Amino acid sequence: MGPKPMSGSSPPQHAPHPLKQTGMVVWLTGLPASGKSTLASALRRNLADASIPACVIDGDELRAGLCSDLGFSEADRRENVRRAGELARFLAAQGLVAIVALVSPYIRDRQSARQRVPLGRFFQVYVDCSVEVCRQRDPKGLYERADRGEIPQFTGVSDPYEAPIAPELHVQTDVESVEASTKRLVEAVRTALGYR
Amino acid sequence: MGPKPMSGSSPPQHAPHPLKQTGMVVWLTGLPASGKSTLASALRRNLADASIPACVIDGDELRAGLCSDLGFSEADRRENVRRAGELARFLAAQGLVAIVALVSPYIRDRQSARQRVPLGRFFQVYVDCSVEVCRQRDPKGLYERADRGEIPQFTGVSDPYEAPIAPELHVQTDVESVEASTKRLVEAVRTALGYR
Questions:
Q1: Higher-confidence residue: B116 or B72?
Q2: Nearest-angstrom CA–CA distance, B19 and B21
């Protein structure tokens, strides 16, 4: 049997949850180009194939929508992470697996997001990759732009990244293959959801 | 057959939508105490009973979470409506019926929310009730507080409410019974969703 559904925001007189599904927040943190979005998409597809409703909350998409009013100051970046957490919390309360793919460099901000979700419903994944390998990948040319000084306070170049102390899962995308990281991620999340 | 699923935010290479469900934004606008939350809850329960995943985005809940950084200046109130719209859009893109219950007094802000959603996927409901009846109800004592000057810029007292010109549905909660308004709302939304 799976875990109990998380307590949501609906008043108790409501009918049983329409999705009949256990919501959870899966939070992928790591340097830019560490592989968060790749893993998030693979996880979402895998869950979808098993009829587990899941969605991806991606940094770029947030910036284009819910957080379009925010810049890149420390305060704005923290607010960006806060809103990602609130969005994920809301989605998880609706029974979805909300997969967040966000640099989210500071421990305290990730901790705040965790504390807004019922115990055991926040699954943090450290997407670990050396900054050297991230630089080699650099699919969006961000490291290059940061080196030229075009992006101030860029995590891994001019701003610190605080690695999780005890994440629920630690993948090393500069050591493992994408397939290996994906397999471990999928198995760990499905276990946490009570599906195996 | 129901309408086609709305185009979501997922890249096209993704698997078919996991919820196999047509998302939609149902936006209830009206004066404070006009009956928006009551109708939203009733609609959500009705859809849930028919296994149509739906959720309510409520003003109070937004203020406690996603919008906890906002005050009640005009700029902040507009930003509150904008974020409600973005949240609803995201949920609808995941296949849920996102029911927004929010005063949202200005036409331009509701129009902005509509324009962020695919054509035909935004269903606006004008929850019409005279300010006199709203004042009599006043379940949270807000009108009373506004009259005492404790709430500046309170819609219906010291701030204008711009009624929708051509809403998808117009209910009159000061004339109809709750049951009658609910019945019309449920039938109209189910028709828009393609369920009858």
A1: B116
A2: 5
Determine whether the interchain pair B96/A95 forms a contact, defined as Cβ–Cβ distance below 8 Å: no
Restricting to B residues 88-107, those with a Cβ less than 8 Å away from any Cβ of A are 89-91, 94-96
Residue of A94, A97, A100, A193 to mutate, testing the B interface (most B Cβ within 10 Å of its Cβ): A94
ipTM of the complex: 0.77
The beta-carbon neighbor of B87 closest among A53, A66, A95 is A66
Task: Give one DSSP letter per residue of B8-22, joined into a string.
Answer: -SS-TTSPSPTT---
How far B159 CA sits from the closest chain A CA (Å)? 25
- Tell if the CB–CB gap between A18 and B52 is shorter than 8 Å: yes
Is B61 within 8 Å of chain A by CB? yes
Q: Chain-wide mean pLDDT for chain A? A: 88
Query: What is the CATH number assigned to the segment(s) A24-192?
Result: 3.40.50.300
- What one-character DSSP code corresponds to residue B138? -
**Rounded to 5 degrees, what angle do the CA atoms A63, A189, A91 make?**
40
Phi, psi angle pair for B56, to nearest 5°: -105, 130
Q: Do B41 and A14 touch (CB under 8 A)?
A: yes
pLDDT at A189 over 60: yes
CATH class assigned to B24-193: alpha beta
For tokens 């974020």, the residue is B83
* Angle, CA B108 vertex, CA B61 and CA B36 arms, to 5°: 35
| Cβ contacts of A45 on chain B, cutoff 8 Å | 14-15
CA distance A57 to A87: 8
Give the type of residue at A107.
I
**Order of all β-strands in the sheet with B122-128:** B54-58, B97-101, B24-29, B122-128, B169-172
- A117-132 pLDDT, tens digit per residue, is 999 999 999 999 999 9
Report residue B161 as tokens. Answer: 């409410």
Q: How far apart are CA B195 and CA B136, in angstroms?
A: 37
Q: How far is CA B146 from the centre of its chain?
A: 23
- Tell me, rounded to whole angstroms, the distance of Cα B182 from its chain centroid: 14
A12 and B CB contact within 8 Å: no
CA distances from A89 to A97, A148, B51, B116 (A): 10, 37, 22, 22
Q: Is B51 left (phi over 0), alpha (psi -120 to 50) or beta?
A: left
C-alpha to C-alpha distances, A84 to A27, A67, B92, B181, nearest whole angstrom: 10, 9, 17, 35
